[in-house]
Amino acid sequence: MNIIEKVRDILFHPGKFFSAVDKEKGLGKAFRFFFILSLISAVLSVIISSFWSRAYTWFLPFPIPKLGLIPLIQTSLINYALLLGASFLIAWFLFIWLRVFRGRRTYSDAYKLYAYSVTPKLVFGWIPIVNLFVWIYSLVLIIIGTNKMYKFSNLKATLIYIVPWAVILLLVVIVALLVMTILLGTGVETF
User: How many CA atoms lie within 13 Å of 83's alpha carbon, on the beta-carbon side?
Assistant: First the structure.
């Protein structure tokens, strides 16, 4: 299966794709997939970033610093290298997290689950404004992948991801409200 067929299957037939991912031995194919899509995404991000800041500064209340092309490419290369390294670390956290819920699969399975579930982010994440939708669909894919690969129920696969995100979001809102209360109480102008 080539990379375009894999992307199509992940995006449009994720249940079927994640059910069949066991046929891949090790994490080599998943890493190559992630490596290529991340590289394409990084290149497209450089192109979009160079135009996006110029095209949309007219409606922003503050100026956006303009990076030259060379610093933009350097920053993108560093981010790309960090993303590749972080994929192994994130998969390790995912592996531990799934173990907590009695997921008895290997680290390479956790890596495959992560690498394939972020496909929407890698394919469409470089497009401004669609990031929220891409993030949500990646969450849906990791839930479907967990259900199919780890044989967790739909409810369990959903709750092990939604509950921590809801708690984190709640904590962020509480901290933001506390900071605003403190700033307003001290007379510091916030706007």
Answer: 21
| Cα 172 from chain centroid (whole Å) | 19
Token pair recorded at residue 107: 């680290």
Task: Give the up-direction half-sphere exposure of residue 48: CA atoms within 13 A in the CB hemisphere.
Answer: 13
Per-residue 3-state assignment (H helix, E strand, C coil) for the chain: CCHHHHHHHHHHCHHHHHHHHHHCCCCHHHHHHHHHHHHHHHHHHHHHHHHHHHHCHHHCCCCCCCCCHHHHHHHHHHHHHHHHHHHHHHHHHHHHHHHHCCCCCCHHHHHHHHHHHCHHHHHHCCCCCCHHHHHHHHHHHHHHHHHHHHCCCHHHHHHHHHHHHHHHHHHHHHHHHHHHHHHHHCCCCCC
Model confidence pLDDT, tens digit, residues 35-81: 999 999 888 887 777 666 555 544 445 555 555 667 777 877 888 89
Looking up tokens 């090790």, which residue turns up?
26
121 pLDDT more than 60 = yes
* CA 127 – CA 45 distance, rounded (Å): 8
Q: In this structure, what token pair is assigned to residue 68?
A: 């030259």
For 180, counting Cβ atoms within 10 Å of its Cβ (0-12 exposed, 13-18 middle, 19+ buried), the class is exposed
Residue type, 188: V
- Please name the residues in contact with 116: beta carbons below 8 A apart, sequence gap of 6 or more: 6, 10, 17, 18, 21, 30, 33, 141, 145
